[in-house]
Amino acid sequence: MSQTQLVLDSPPPSWNEGEQFRIHCGISGGFMRRIEPIGSQFLAHARRKLNNHSFSEDER
Amino acid sequence: MPSAMDSKPVIIGLRIGQSYSSIAIINKDERADCIANEDGERQIPTMVAFSGDEELTGTQAKVQLLSNSKNTITQFRNFIGKSYEECKSIVSTGSAQLVDKDGQAAYKVEFKEEETIVTAQEACTKFIASLRESAENFLGQSVTGVVLAIPTYFDDEQKNSLRIATEKAGLRVLQLINEPSAAALAYEIGNVIISGQNPSTTNKYNDRIDVIVDLGSDSLDVSVMSVRSGMYTILGTTHDPDLGGAAFDELLAKHFANEFKRKTKIDIMDNKRALVKLRNSVEITKKTLSSSSTSTCSVESLAEGIDFHGNINRTRFEIMANKLFSRTLEIISEALKNNDLEPQSIDEVILVGGASRIPKLQSKLRDMFANPSTLIRQDFEPDEVVAYGCAFQGSLISTFADQLINDSLDTSITLIPHLLKSIGILNAKKEFITLIPENTPLPVRRNFTFSNYLENQKEIYIAIWEDKLLVEMVLKDLPEKKANELKIFITIEVDMDSKCFITAKELISDKKLEIEIDGKSK
Ligand SMILES: Nc1ncnc2c1ncn2[C@@H]1O[C@H](COP(=O)(O)OP(=O)(O)OP(=O)(O)O)[C@@H](O)[C@H]1O
Ligand SMILES: [Mg+2]
Questions:
Q1: Which of A40, B298, B389, B492 has a Cα at 20 to 30 A from A12?
Q2: Ranges of each domain in chain A
Q3: Do the beta carbons of residue B389 and residue B177 sit within 8 Å?
């Protein structure tokens, strides 16, 4: 991802002043798959799950 | 008294192939390497033999295969944990006779002048015990545990049986891991160590799609794997049980058998012993053709006391093998198609299996994956890379308690929801920028920094998309800055229930917007 891609525009003319956000729909449901229990990121995931930690708790 | 802390655990990585096996360790400089057995071989023939009063394994078993084939057990790895009924139709040539022992696949051999029945699992134990010994001789200390690679098609029965065989060989099994995953891990960790860089830098989270092509001795396995922030998910494996190095040997054997017939009028196609001799010899011919443009095949007393000597060049071999190359590419295409992927969307192709050394096959793979951003990974020896991955995994978990390792393998940890569709943002140029790609395991949290497109842009419009618009947000009253000078920090988190949390914050003014979108069921 190049830096020049990471730019955001002003709201479109149709945007109502004072409006902060519009939620259109939720994201599609997750699909169950098996992750391979290998590598350090998996171990971090397993540790979070086993300790019932969220991402933020994990960072502390 | 020495404490447990003094003795560093010694973990090895093992891959047991149908034909060859390898033992890997992690060196002092953190690199993986394979150990040679006492005969100097790093690719150790997966064989067990009984000769008089002696039990032989590996290279020692292979050298006497021709003179003692009925007491030599070969190709037993895939029969582990299988019933005799399941195996009886898959007869391997030049090996001890397959028999039924209480329903299990077993072999009848003569040992110490007595008929003895050895199950596939027992053969495996004997073989792995010899690998352990080789490792201990090399290291000068006992091995405390092992991470073992298994083919993706092994069922629970087979995994269990292999685990038991290994523990009976005196090795504590820390973990069984799939062969393609081991190979991918070997490149991930091995590459960081060698070059200090991640294997492919598609983005800062190192997301990628790998295709692992494993052309072994008996079979071809093509696995498609998504790697998301260092987590590996096999999307699918396509397997051809009849396409491997042996199929190439068979072509060469037929070719030379015809030549022998032309020269001597002797047909050896029904002569089992002659065929075993010839197949053994052409394997070397084939390997030589991977590094030289011509090769020979010599067999002493091939039939009726007549020696055979033949030549072949690489081009001839490649023409003969064209169908096998095409079939390999077909299986790869099928694997891609099964996952709705095109060759150009693949980030890495990892070559595994001894037969993937065939130069023509490599050039055909390069043609198939011609996109310059697709890396063809073949820096590691293809028949060793799986063992490397096991050794790396072993070193990652070497200090963990068994209980913790077992807990982490529980399906409640490994079976998790994955993002169904990529989530992205539409930037100022109306381009879709992927923030979290499909197949990312959940939960996930990612951070991105965006900037303002226009000078004095007081409002920032954020549109988050899947394949449809999910949410629009606007950050207001921002400080007046030149283009590209604002720093807008966007965090997206998706939890296990597909609930999505989006935070957008402008760093200078600290203006912030937080939104939660409920996951909706499909
Ligand atoms: N340099 C080479 N050129 C061509 N083929 C080779 C070369 N080196 C090894 N092979 C072939 O690779 C095959 C062995 O590969 P490998 O050790 O990966 O198989 P395996 O794991 O025992 O088998 P499988 O994966 O089917 O269980 C043999 O057929 C061997 O002849
Ligand atoms: Mg193999």
A1: B492
A2: 34-60
A3: yes
How do the domains of chain B map onto residue ranges?
247-315, 423-517
Closest residue on chain B to A47 (Cα): B408
For the stretch B300-318, pLDDT in tens is 999 999 999 999 999 999 9
Judged by a CB distance cut-off of 8 A, whether residue A32 touches chain B is yes
CATH code, residues B247-315: 3.90.640.10
CA-nearest residue to A20 within chain B is: B474
Check the CA dihedral A14-A17-A20-A22 and report its sign. negative
* Complex prediction ipTM: 0.93
Distance CA B21, CA B392 (A): 17
Element containing residue B325 per DSSP (H, E): helix B322-338
Of B102, B153, B137, whose CA–CA distance to B10 is shortest?
B137
Rounded CA gap, B521 and B259, in Å? 66
CB contact under 8 A, B445 and A55: yes
- Who's near A31: CB < 8 A, 6+ residues apart? B417, B418, B419, B420
The answer, yes or no, to whether any atom of ligand 1 lies below 6 A from the CB of B152, is no
Residue B384 Cβ inside 6 Å of ligand 1? The answer reads no
Query: For the segment B329-351, what is each residue's pLDDT rounded down to a tens digit?
Result: 999 999 999 999 999 999 999 99
Average pLDDT over residues B497-508: 94
Q: State the distance from the centre of ligand 1 to the C-alpha of B383, rounded, in angstroms.
A: 7
Looking at the domain that runs over B423-517, which CATH code has it been given? 2.60.34.10
**pLDDT of the residue at B134:** 97
Q: How far is CA B214 from the centre of its chain?
A: 7
Chain B residues whose CB is inside 8 A of the A52 CB are none
Q: Where are the alpha helices (DSSP H) in B57-99?
A: 58-63, 84-87
Cβ within 8 Å, pair B441-A33: yes
Q: CA–CA distance from A7 to each of B206, B277, B396, B418 (Å)?
A: 21, 68, 39, 28
